[in-house]
Write a structure and sequence with these properties.
Keywords: Membrane, Transmembrane, Transmembrane helix. It is built from six helices and no strands. It is an all-alpha fold and 155 residues long. It is elongated and about 100 Å long. The chain starts with a helix and ends in a 6-residue tail after the last helix.
């Protein structure tokens, strides 16, 4: 009879331990699910900074591609980054639209020449790199962002 009490006590402790572990796992899963479903993490970042994430990420990827591969697709990627940036900022002047549209033309031609495996005239690439190179687009994005968010706050 004593051995049965020991066995039942062991089973009782084992069941309690398993229940404790399962309860802990359920609690941890519940915490993770509530954390992931409560709010998007990016919403904790100030909105003006969020505006920069997409264009700067595209420029970063473009700089990496440009460093190791051909720069022609990067012209297209940078033109898209410029367009996304100005659309997000709501800038809509004749010169901004001209720069955005010219970038899409340059980027489209550069991408097309890359896909068709032929090279445009070197003057085209000189102008494309000058106007839509990663450094130029990065400066344009940062300067317009600073203008919009810092200088516009000065009365």
């Amino acid at each position: 009879m004593e051995i049965l009490n020991i066995i039942f006590s062991f089973i009782n402790y084992l069941a309690s331990f398993i229940a404790f572990i399962v309860w802990g796992i359920i609690g941890a899963v519940s915490f993770v699910v509530s954390l992931l479903s409560s709010r998007a993490f990016i919403t904790y970042i100030p909105h003006p900074v969020v505006e920069l994430i997409g264009p700067l990420a595209m420029l970063w990827v473009g700089a990496e591609v440009e460093e190791y591969y051909t720069p022609r697709p990067v012209i297209f990627l940078n033109a898209i980054a410029i367009n996304l940036h100005f659309l997000a900022m709501g800038w809509d002047s004749m010169w901004v639209r001209f720069y955005m549209n010219l970038g899409l033309i340059f980027g489209g031609l550069a991408w097309w020449s890359y896909e068709e495996e032929f090279s445009m005239h070197s003057t085209f690439y000189d102008w494309a790199k000058l106007l839509y190179g990663t450094g130029t687009c990065g400066l344009v994005i940062l300067m317009t962002w600073v203008w919009e968010h810092l200088f516009s706050a000065i009365p």
